[in-house]
Specification:
Helices cover 38% and strands 28% of the residues. The protein has a six-stranded mixed sheet, sandwiched between helices. By secondary structure, it is an alpha/beta fold. The protein is globular. The two termini are 28 Å apart. The protein contains four helices and six strands.
Length: 150
């Protein structure tokens, strides 16, 4: 599920759309180096663990490269509680270090599910501009004690 590849969990006819993930590396004047994981499709019990692992790897690779990770959920459906838990598992290390993953443009039901879950490692943003502005503000504020690069 990397760089635009389909999840190995193929969709049955009439079933939910397959999960597709693509990483885009960008340099934005307002935010610096950014690694955006664009997700499309449905996260359900059949692929929630795989999604969580891919998101955690994306975050780790972005940190290693000195980039800020961002998750674009514009075209994602979270079909069950396991899908929300998958996001929580993937962002646990960020939460532990006092950071949060900007999640961009989730559909209303996804936004509501993420907010209701109160995930400490997630910050929901209505637009990419809002997410990038939050990264810029964080950068201006400087590192927090105990948080790597904060």
């Amino acid at each position: 599920m990397e760089n635009g590849q389909l999840s190995r969990h193929r969709v049955r006819p009439g079933g939910p759309p397959p999960l597709l993930l693509q990483t885009v590396h960008e340099h934005r004047p307002e935010a610096g180096a950014v690694s955006v994981l664009k997700a499309r499709g449905t996260v359900d019990a059949s692929n929630a663990v795989e999604f969580s692992e891919a998101l955690a790897a994306h975050i780790a690779q972005a940190d290693k490269a000195g980039e800020d990770p961002v998750l674009d959920m514009t075209e994602v459906y979270l079909a069950c509680p396991a899908a929300v838990r998958s996001v929580d598992r993937a962002t646990g290390a960020l939460a532990f270090s006092g950071r949060a993953l900007p999640v961009v443009q989730p559909r209303p039901h996804v936004r509501d599910a993420l907010r209701a879950a109160g995930l400490p490692g997630v910050r929901v943003h209505a637009t990419m501009t809002s997410a990038l502005n939050s990264l810029e503000a964080r950068r201006r504020a400087g590192p927090r004690p105990g948080g790597p690069g904060w």
